Amino acid sequence: MHPNRNLTILSVAFPLLPVTSGSGGGAEQILSLVERGLVEAGYRSIVVAAKGSEIAGTLIETPAATSEITEDIRVDAQQKHAQAIEQALSVTKVDLIHFHGLDFCSYKPADKVPKLATLHLPCQWYPASIFNNGGVQINCVSQTQANAAPRTGLPVIPNGIDTSRYWSSTSARQYLLWLGRICPEKGVHIALRVARRLNLPMVIAGPVHPFRDHEMYFDREIRPLLDAERRYFGPVDLNTKVKLLSEAMCLLIPSLVAETSSLVAMEAIASGTPVVAFRSGALPEIVEHGRTGYIVDSEDEMAGAIAKISALSPEGSRLRASERFDAKRMINDYIHLYADVIGAFSSKHHG
User: Model pTM?
Assistant: First the structure.
């Protein structure tokens, strides 16, 4: 089925966390990019997302987190999301709902409308029932993630970034960088240990979301490793992130979980900044060993690889990013997948 530009797409974010171009979470960043691309291509876009979201189309607001996210707050947010979706469906003919949240089953409407869910996290984090053709088409964001899915044949749309936003500094690069959501599975403490071991300056940037285990991790594991040379910048907006990436010596990604993708690795490569990453999930799909960075298997190897980053070409990295990661390809792929999902739904229900 060919794309039809007279469509209305309802995108649904994870509850409680705002969607902006500078969001710390990959799901929010991809929703922001795809949604903006839809509007630029002439589609009608509606988004259900937390207050404070910056949307190109029409935003239906639900509450944003203002304190620690408890189970009661989470359940209440899911109910408000469900109500917002019902509100949108009651006043607008929606052609497809695109879910981006881990918990989409909690607010999936019963309405007979085509549904797509992008899995931004490891497959085992989702209820097994979503893989049993439960009325929602699923897509993965990397081949590694699809290979780990309990069902074969899921469509794969690799993530992308707006490569035009990133630039490479010509001045001396003087610090290591870690950038992302600060939580135990991202291995921030490992990056800090490496920086202290090599006696190199380091910048840690990104949000500590109001989940109890994330806040405890920061207080117990991260704060004691900070000093005058290893600093925490807090959450950063897009412009600050671009500047940090452009001026970093290299980006460290010591992830302890199977990453489904890595937008920050793509952003670093687009900035001409080498990436030294653990062999976790899809990271070897993104970081070309010996070309745009190094894939390592331990903290010791990470420390050793930093000594070799001067051999990599910033210009070569930027070229590879524009060839492989540009968001226009991703947006176009989603538009074609929307058409396929709508076509399959129509055949099933009206054929």
Answer: 0.91
Cα torsion 232, 235, 240, 245: sign: positive
Instruction: For strands 248-253 and 58-62, give the pairing.
Output: unpaired
- Cα 133 from Cα 131, distance rounded (Å): 6
DSSP string for 44-93: EEEEEEETT---SSEEEEEPBP-S---HHHHHHHHHHHHHHHHHHHHHS-
- The CATH T-level fold of domain 8-160+326-344 is Rossmann fold (3.40.50)
Rounded mean pLDDT for each run of 10 residues along the chain, 351 residues in total: 79 95 86 97 97 97 89 94 96 97 95 95 92 90 95 96 93 93 96 98 94 96 98 94 96 95 97 98 97 98 97 96 96 97 87 58
Distance CA 114, CA 95 (A): 7
Token couple for 319: 């070229």
Coil/strand/helix, residue 117: strand
Domain ranges in the chain?
8-160+326-344, 163-324
Q: Can you name the residues that pair with 8 across neighbouring β-strands?
A: 44
Q: State the fold for domain 163-324.
A: Rossmann fold (3.40.50)
